[in-house]
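Why does this matter for the project? Reviewers at the last site visit asked to see concrete outputs rather than summary tables. In response, this paragraph embeds two records directly. Each consists of the residue sequence and, immediately after it, the corresponding structure tokens. Nothing has been edited or filtered.
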Amino acid sequence: MFEYKDIVIFLVGFVSSIINVLAGGGSLLTLPLLIFYGLDANVANATNRVCIVVQSLVSSASFHKKKILDLKSGLIYSVPAMLGAVIGSIVAVDIDNDLMEKIIGIIMAVILVVVLFKPNDFLKEKIKEKTSKLNFLETIFSVIIGFYAGFIQAGVGYLMTFVFVIIGGYNLLYANALKMFLTLVLNALALAVFIYYDLVLWKIGTILALGSIFGGLLGTKLAIWGGVKFIRYVFIALISIFIVILLRPNV
């Protein structure tokens, strides 16, 4: 029997999934909610990965069906990113959480400045042709993406989008598709670790994931319908909110 809080979890999973597909930062909704409902922070983080994996899978499949996801490049990016994720998760153990938030907030502010003052890079229609290997910069930044994801999941979508557009040469729509695929790979790896340590609450994770299925489908349709201009506007709005939250003064 569903309780009131189950409906809330479902709806938050739905909304967070739309946010993650269009820009990133959906975990800023899901993690506080799970902690508010009494979950330990580690358990909340682990349970949230179920939602992220499901929404990323749904969105990636939809992008692939529409021939927008460059699956070959996604797999190539994944290899160094997975290495970075392992390193990042180890480093994160000894880093103060408040310090992490400030570091991420500053990185996001830099990305926002680039998006605002180099609009042509984020509005281009031309996309990069498929490649069989990454260049040096793409390899380095793929490791950084993975490190970031292992270090702290929240907001990693912004860094992915930035790297795929500025370094990789993709437009925002195709970068979004790659972002969702890489999110799937990295979080599936993290989820496997959390399952091993028995940190996942499956009932809550499943309800959250069910909401994320519908949100992922709607978010993908909105991204395809709106195109690069729409995604850029949403990206700017959400990353601005994200920065304010992360750089807020401690009380």
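We now turn to the second protein, recorded in exactly the same manner.
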Amino acid sequence: RLNLLSPRWLSFSLDNRINLHGSWEEKIVGTKEAKKETFGQTASSKKENRNTEGSLKTVTQSWSINISHRFSQTRGGSKTHWITFSLRLPFTPKWLLNYHARYDFTERKITEQTFEFYRDMHCWEGRFTWIATGYRKGYYFRINIKALPEIKIEKSRGGLREMFF
């Protein structure tokens, strides 16, 4: 029998998220570069060009921290309760660290933990991903040309190959 005036509890869920983002600027001193000499320069202006230092380059680094929490329970008794933590941290202008962890309160353990290191190498890029715990445990390593990602060197162990590419 359907009774519209008597509701019943089927499920309950609660989701919380905290996202923090920020950035900082770093000034990097350029290297000495020989400037091209143009026709008609005097000897003194040629000497100044050879001694000129490279200019300062400003690089903006962005970081983020994300925390999410989920609790859900159904009338039948199934329960989900976990918290996820993610960190994105560039520790130099060319190196980036991504970290991800999930803690399951019902199992009382960290169910997944991932470390990813990324390196920018001018026209190349490198990536090393290591999943330390969880059912996808393993690693993935890749170096490729940025403009032609099909040209690469890669190695993996575990279930990571299918996850990324």
